[in-house]
């Protein structure tokens, strides 16, 4: 995850094969001081090349594209640039696409008709490593994704932190809400992922949805 200071905008790369869509997103985000669109690409391969050149904090990734599709691009991007966060921004809400995108490493999954304020908020959240899922995408993930049984029982504090992670809260926010050190939250999150046998906060959120620890609406 890239460090984003209070005074520096989140650097965003747009990857979509439709110029009209890219232009619309740029227009939506162009009035924001908190987000800066640093580049745009027509397919996943171009996107990967620009990530290396432009070092964005967040990539908005379409899924259905020529040359290299979004899921393949997300998987390769996270392998090569693990600190770059990805939001799948697509018009497709198919179970397989949702699951594939998240399992490939997407932090968020939103639809292209998401309003500009919500999109900007999701971008800022992604830059902090927070989970942002369209409610219907979260439901489909909870239904389709198999999560392992816990390797070890969570403590009450770990369960509380898992709920907050699933609600998209960043470590700093959790620390403030629980009146504990941010590094303590980070340690708890690490323990939660280890006990659940999971690799990411997004997967932990899905587990929380499936176990009924948080609501899906």
UniProtKB/TrEMBL annotation:
4-aspartylphosphate, modified sites: 62
Keyword DNA-binding applies: yes
Every HTH luxR-type domain range: 147-212
Pfam families: GerE, Response_reg
GO molecular function, one term: DNA binding
SUPFAM superfamilies listed in its UniProt record: C-terminal effector domain of the bipartite response regulators, CheY-like
Domain Response regulatory: 11-127
Keywords recorded for this protein, A-Z: DNA-binding, Phosphoprotein
PANTHER family membership: TWO-COMPONENT RESPONSE REGULATOR (PTHR43214:SF43)
Official protein name in the record: LuxR family two component transcriptional regulator
């Amino acid at each position: 995850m890239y460090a984003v200071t209070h005074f520096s905008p989140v650097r965003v790369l747009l990857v979509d094969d439709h110029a009209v869509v890219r232009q619309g997103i740029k227009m939506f985000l162009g009035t924001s001081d908190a987000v800066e669109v640093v580049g745009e690409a027509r397919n996943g391969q171009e996107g990967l090349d620009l990530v290396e050149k432009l070092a964005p904090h967040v990539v908005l990734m379409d899924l259905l594209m020529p040359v290299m599709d979004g899921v393949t691009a997300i998987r390769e991007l996270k392998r090569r640039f693990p600190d770059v966060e990805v939001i799948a921004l697509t018009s497709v809400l198919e179970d397989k696409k949702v699951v594939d995108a998240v399992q490939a490493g997407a932090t968020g999954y939103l639809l292209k008709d998401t309003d500009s304020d919500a999109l900007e908020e999701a971008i800022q959240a992604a830059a902090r490593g927070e989970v942002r899922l369209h409610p219907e995408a979260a439901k489909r993930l909870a239904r389709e994704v198999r999560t392992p049984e816990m390797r070890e029982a969570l403590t009450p504090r770990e369960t509380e932190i898992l709920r907050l992670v699933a609600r998209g809260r960043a470590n700093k926010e959790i620390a403030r809400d629980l009146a504990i050190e941010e590094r303590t939250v980070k340690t708890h999150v690490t323990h939660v992922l280890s006990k659940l046998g999971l690799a990411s906060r997004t997967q932990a959120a899905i587990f929380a949805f499936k176990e009924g620890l948080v609501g899906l609406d």
